Inverse folding.
């Protein structure tokens, strides 16, 4: 046989591969993830497929602590990230999106305590909520101090300025129930309220007034 260059005539994407597996009934339906060994395989790839039935936070945090050994995360047939059990993965998810995690077995430990080296997803995949940084804006407050989940966010004094919002780091949020303590020092006659916003707001008028006072004092 003469040696020559051979061109690939057909390339299948992830969707084609999943259709092939479904057509040949090379899959099982399960409410729990199973390892490669539980399906009587010893090596190769395993594809875990599910449809997101709820609206997760986006981006969603996907811990990969139970992944053995290497994972390819697809959202609606688009590769999002390549990861392993060391990293936590973030992915853009929407309700009714199809999540596919293709897991590769990269070999086994054949000695010592790690000889029972199962492959695939060893744990259920659960989404963690990603809390982003925000800014706290107070309405109808005058002057005081506040704490978010027992962490001080410093003093607020919007009338004095220049800042109208206080920085709230995402690391301070619990993700379910937040605890905000506000000590108002001067005015409690009005109905106060607050909100978390994306942008930091500055009071330009307060800046101008402060500069004018500095000029007069000089």
């Amino acid at each position: 046989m003469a040696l020559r260059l051979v061109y690939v005539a057909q390339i299948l994407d992830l969707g084609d591969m999943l259709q092939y597996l479904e057509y040949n009934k090379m899959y099982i339906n399960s409410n729990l993830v199973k390892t490669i060994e539980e399906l009587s395989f010893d090596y190769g790839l395993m594809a875990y497929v599910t449809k997101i039935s709820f609206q997760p936070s986006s981006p969603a945090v996907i811990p990969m602590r139970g992944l053995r050994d290497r994972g390819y995360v697809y959202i609606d047939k688009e590769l999002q990230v390549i990861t392993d059990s060391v990293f936590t993965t973030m992915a853009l998810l929407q309700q009714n999106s199809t999540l596919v995690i293709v897991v590769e077995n990269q070999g086994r430990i054949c000695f010592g305590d790690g000889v029972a080296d199962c492959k695939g997803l060893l744990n259920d995949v659960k989404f963690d909520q990603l809390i982003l940084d925000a800014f706290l804006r107070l309405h109808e407050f005058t002057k005081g101090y506040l704490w978010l989940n027992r962490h001080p966010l410093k003093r607020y004094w919007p009338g004095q300025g220049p800042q109208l919002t206080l920085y709230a780091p995402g690391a301070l949020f619990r993700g379910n129930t937040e605890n905000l303590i506000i000590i108002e020092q001067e005015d409690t006659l009005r109905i106060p309220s607050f909100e978390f916003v994306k942008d930091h707001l500055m009071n330009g008028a307060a800046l101008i007034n402060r500069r004018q006072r500095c000029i007069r004092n000089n």
